[in-house]
Amino acid sequence: MPDPRLAQADALLRARQPLAAKAILDGVLAGTGPGRGDRRIALLLRSRAFEDQRQLPPAIADLRAALALEPRDPKAYNTLGILLADSGDADGAVGAFRQATALDPKYIRGWNNLGLALQGENRVGEAIAAFREAVARAPQFAQAQWNLALALLLDRQFDEGWRHYEARLAVPQFLPTQRSHRLPRWDGVVRPGVRLVLVTEQGLGDALQFIRFAAPLADAGVTVLVSTQAPLRRLLATAPGVTAVFGPDDPPPAADAELPLLSLPGVLKIGDDVPPAPYL
Fold first, then answer.
1. Cys bridge to 103: 74, 87, 169, 243, which one at CB 3.0-4.6 A?
2. Is-contact 113 81, C-beta < 8 A?
3. Do residues 102 and 133 lie in contact, with contact meaning Cβ atoms separated by under 8 Å?
4. How far apart are CA 54 and CA 82, in angstroms?
5. pLDDT tens digits along 79-130
6. How many CB atoms lie within 10 A of CB 54?
7. 3-state DSSP call for residue 226?
8. pTM of the model
């Protein structure tokens, strides 16, 4: 029967009380009674307590000790990889994530984290392969598709990269800040006279970077209207190619179609031919 103190410590960790949890776990581990299973669980829990206090070396040591007791735990290897990456041990992190995915080839978070660790080391080709493994096993895992997109774009594989870039719209932290105007999504066909609403997304910096694509649209005869948050209205109104800018509280102007701003390069099939900066 498991030591009841383990459940108590787990509850304290969930309640964000790592010091109290660690005190209990210290007692469990200091005793002569815990069996192999209880000792392993206590080490995993105490590693969490150390991690919650940002004490990475003892958190890593406890995880390694737990893995010595049960070396077939892919989730523990994944957590070890995260802690090693946070501590600056990139090679160790890659090794831990590889071990996690070797133990469980269906472990999509292990593949995704392996890709991130490899990309952080500028091993882009290997990162792409890892992200592909995650996406192949879980096509609905938008975060992995997003990471694959960034790696592909970094590798200048623009067509596929921009396609996967659309996955950002399913990642909660990347949802557009502006509401949709219930217009048809623009199909990318440039028709002179079409009135197009570009809807800005997450960060202000992204809007400033991607608004450069308004100019070639305007040169082709598209009337470019921009829906954005209040802090950017005056600045984006100065961008070449922009006809009008409106905010969330303004009545939207008449338009034919709309598009999230960061989807524009993919629709336009942008590769190396990026409009030059400065553009504001």
1. 74
2. yes
3. no
4. 13
5. 999 999 999 999 999 999 999 999 999 999 999 999 999 999 999 999 999 9
6. 8
7. strand
8. 0.87
